[in-house]
Structures are given as C-alpha cells and as structure tokens.
Amino acid sequence: MDWNLLQTWFSKEFFFELGTSAGIFIFVLFFGYLVGDRIVPRLSGILFQNKIQSSHPLYKAGRRIIRLLFFLLGSYLFLRFQKLSPAFEEFVFLSFKIAAIILLTFSLVRLFSAVFETYSEKTEGLLSSASIISNVIRITLFAIGVILILQSLGISVAPILGALGVGGLAVALGLQPTLSNLFSGLSILMGKQLKKGDYVRLQGDGLEGYVQDITWRTTTIRRFNNSTIIVPNSVMSSSVFTNFDLPSKELSIAIEAGVAYQSDLEKVESIAVEIANEVLKQFYKNAPVKEVSFSYQRFGESSVDFKVILPSLEFTDQFAIKHEYIKRIHSRFQKEGVELRFQVKKGN
Question: Which residue windows are transmembrane per the record (predicted)?
C-alpha cells in the first residue's frame, strides 16, 4: 500500500475542497427547496387563481422539477470544485450528464402529463383526458431522452434514424391495422367527437354506455350492467353513433298522457307542472335546470292528450326521473279525481 499516495488523497487540501464542495451543494439544495416552495404557489395562484391545491399532481410535479434542477446544479458545482484527473473527470461528468438526462426526462413526463390533465379539465370538450394522448406525450419525451443519451455517448443518431426510416415502411405495412386504430383514435379526439365520460349509443342492440377510455388501439365503453364493450378505433371513427353529451349533457324527457274530456284542463296543467317541479327538486336540489314545459297536443278519440317535458342533467337520470314522475302524477290524479285515459295513436 502506497502511504504517500493515501496521504496526498486525504490531505488538508482534500478535506478543504470536499468541505467547500459539500457546503456549496447543501446551500444550493436548500435554496432550491425554498425557491420551489415559493415559486410554485405563486405561479399556481397567478395561472389558476389558487384553484390548485398542494395535493394536485401539477403542483407536485412543478415543485419536484424545480427542486431537481437545483439538485443537479448543486451536484454539478460539487463535482466542478473537485480536482480530478482528466480521464476520471471525463468519465464522471459523462455519467452525471446521462443521469441528469434520465432524471429530467422522467420529471418532464410527469410534468407534461399533469399539465395535460389540468388543461383537459379546464377546457372540457376540446381535448380528452384519454390515455392515448398521455401515452403519445410520454413516448415522445422518452424518445427525445434516448436520442440525447446516444448523442452524449458519441453515437451518431443519423444512421439509426435512416435505418429506421428504411425499415419503417416495412413495419408500417405490417402494423397497418394498429396504425389505423392509432390515427383513428387521435382523429376522434381532435375532431371533438368523443371524450372520456361521454354517454354514447352505437348502431346495434345494447351497444351503449359511458366511454371509459380511448387508448392507442380501442375505445372502451362501460354498459349499465358493468360489462364492457371494446370497439377498435378504426371502427368507432367510421361508425354512426349518438353522443348524448354533445353539445351539452342536459337533455329533455318527454312524457305523454291523456285525460278524460270532462277534466278541468287548467287544474290538470297546474298539477302536472307542480309534480314535475317537485321531482326535479328531489333530484337537483341546488343545480340550475330549465323550466318544465307543458302543452296539450290533440283531441283524441276518448282523451285530451298532453305532453310534459322535463330537463335532465345526465343521460342516466332520465329513467329515475320518469319513473318517479309517473308514480306521483298517477297518485295525485287519483286523489284529485282526474281520470287518466289511454292514448290511441293512429298511423299516418
């Protein structure tokens, strides 16, 4: 063992340099934590009017990346103040650069995913929070990170990209159905035809439900019985379907009935509207809804026919609202002596 070499390594100068470097690293790291705790709340207050809580993914991702930047800065200064041999210094800084690219890539993936999630919540209908968009963002950022690492290692990216371009044609032909589904899914989202959470009805018996997700290959729809319909994006984009949440979630429930000719029509209208408002108040206590519409339709063979239109804020609410309204109006008409009559509809 070479004691002279060890004494050189652990000399006063070595400990002084190590202490100075460690002090700078701790100061920069501490300063970064303070800045992160000051900048992020102010930015969230300015951009989002303090509507983002500290538990929100965007808040956490923003604070994390600021702290990471100061950590990398402190680590770089720590290494820079060390006196290393040229060969070892080159290896250390190359390793530091690759590690920094990896850490920043993962942090940027989290940040952009959180930004997209927040943006999709703020701009309902413009873009969806479907996983296909998040996956495209992740793949793009990871691809950029890999390219930067290869360039740092001195590996030329141009020949690789050229080889991928030549082989890409053959791969594209083999993956034509997959690529068709991918671009069809993007087309659906960018065309504002569909988004996560919409209630849709496709052509065919029982093909309706809530859109759970739009992935790079399929659109997943959850039915009332909790079963799942999986539709390829290429089929979804070329199919005729009804989106009950466009242009808005609110829809109208039409209920038709008839009363005997000797009935007091003013009283019938008053009761029908009163019951409708009671039912809506039960379902939507504080939410604003449209007014109830009542109109007499025709003189039937044995009844005066009328129609009541009630608003519904969700597609699935209509069934419970209709159920409750029919029960209440039937009971009230019996108490008031109003005779309901069966409507006879003639063909045109």
Answer: 20-40, 61-79, 91-113, 125-150, 156-175
